Amino acid sequence: MNVQGCPERTTALDAASIGDSVSVPLCSPSLQLIHTTPINSCPSSPATPTTSTTPATTPATSPSTSIFSEEDFPPLISPTSNQAPNNDHSMITRAKDGIRKPNPRYALHTVKSNYPEPKTVKTALKDPGWNGAMTEEVDTMHETKTWDLVPPEEDIQPLGCKWVFKTKLCADGSLDKLKARLVAKGYEQEEGVDFVETYSPVVRTATIRMVLHNATINKWNIKQLDVKNAFLHGDLKETVYMVQPPGFEDTSKPDYICKLKKAIYGLKQAPRAWFDKFSSFLLEFGFTCSYPDPSLFVYIKGPDIMYLLLYVDDMLLTGNNTKLMEQLLVSLSSIFRMKDMGPLHYFLGIQAHFHENGLFLNQEKYARDLLVSAGMADCAPMPTPLPLQPGKFSHQSKAFSDPTYFRSLAGKLQYLTLTRPDIQFAVNFVCQKMHAPSEDDFHLLKRIIRYVKGTLQLGINLSNSTDSTLRVYSDSDWSGCKDTSRSTGGFCTFLGENIISWSSKRHPTVSHSSTEAEYRTMSMASREIMWLNSLLRETGVAQPITPEMYCDNLSAVHLTANPALHSKSKHFARDFHHVREQVALGALIVKHIPATDQLADVFTKSLPQQAFFDLRFKLGLCSPPTPSLRGSINSKDLLTKTEVLPQPQNRQDGPTKVQQGSKISVHEKPIPTVSATVKSRVPRTCRVQGTEGLRHEIHLSNRFNALGSGAIMCS
Known about the structure:
The protein is of the alpha+beta class and 715 residues long. 25% of the residues lie in helices and 18% in strands.
């Protein structure tokens, strides 16, 4: 419909065309009026006659019944106009926001809970998604020339193979892809015949945190890489035969078997073959394999520094030279099937969130999956992982009916401790009951899961405004185990303000005194700090001062500096004195601190609620930072002095009129300072008497702790 005197506009649908071509309504009756009512003429020329293609039978719409107004249509720019549209915002793309475009192959597939993995090959072949994943896997093996088809012989016993299906999810729980993997039945191999070497290193979690710490404080880019079908790049040295993959047999040679040329998944030597192939390439490029952690590769040449972490086929790459990193990716892609996954966001089940003050790591998705697998997604949360005396009545209850289920949940909780040091002692305590769990032990396990339910988003924060000073806190709970009278030792190491590693472990033997228990734990902590110190030296990070160890037992501190031999320490094992040797060499300084400042106390025993909260905060655990909005007001600007408009003298003056274009500053009415007295013995409801005679009734919890002036605290 063309309107004279106004820019050309078109209605959504023409009423006549709809009535001629469609016999049923295209929308609900409430929306048909919008589609069939013509747009009113422009208000700027109401008397101008209009030309419309609407049939005469359609009644004209009066201005009073018009659905659209001029405000509903923004002013349009004529094609001949030289005026350019005003665009003050930069382009926002999926890559900049870390959004991955979904694969159209999985458009009809839902999440894992509603779409389980197929149990048989026949079922998978009927599904288009799984069939496509299996076809892609077989095509990749043909491209890499994984095997050759050979006729079978009488003295050859080929290995079997099977399909493994896995639904891979993104960090937000959405469907990532359907993965089908063809694996050999490696348990049928014979040592010395089908394989020789099987060991392959994986990176330690403390090494990952240390590398992320270095990248965070230096503000380096961290790239996440992946290798498609990584094991198929490894060359197989032994002669191994395998049957053809089920569902994809060669119709022309159905009786032939596969003579493997590549280390297919499932073979015992496959991880070793892949690691040898990949590490050889990195060494040729100029990397050096770290001695403290062979899965860390370091590149240091002049001012250029790069770190590469390898966990099977998942990698992290960071450094101070972006061009050199891109050159490495090009070289890797020429030999391996590399996949650049962009900046670090989801690595080994750990979610990474970058913010202006550093890097935040947590396992919220993994924790939610744990709750679902345990059937406790709707459970009530608990404030602490364990009660004050967790092992008081465990020996009085009967055995748990399903020990396998208990071990499964306990093992899943162990992996959650990668970013949750607050549950390290609790998980270590329940894992000691794996061999014969009781019903009370299972109740303790469920309490830990209930605590996780209330702290799903909790994680560790790596600050970018700290140094790399190495320090460790060591503590021990003497004779804490009521069943064996053994002690529990714990320690935690820091690089500046960032926690790097932690441990909670029960001693193998009984300690005769608290000094012996503390001294034994200090020896364990000294080995950890020496390992971290050597790792820092290989990565080119110099220590500004000598590493320090803090202990709250004065006798144990004196034993590290004085080689005294008396009746209470003459029976100490030789490995206990490792800490004394490091102190004598000047590689370690041991200091005494009060028990109230001991951060490792949370790794040795179950603590009261407030003490547990305090230590959890001091360890660096927090919730994910709130992202700032684009174009939002800086928080510092709120503290600047602004101009306040004059207020009316009385209510009859009415609101203040503001001229158009004036700058307005909105200020809330300041809260007057009130001196208040809180009645004692009223834990839940505190009645406050203000100075102006106004009474307030404030409902507070016993655990409430308000910060700031005028805060009311209930003890």
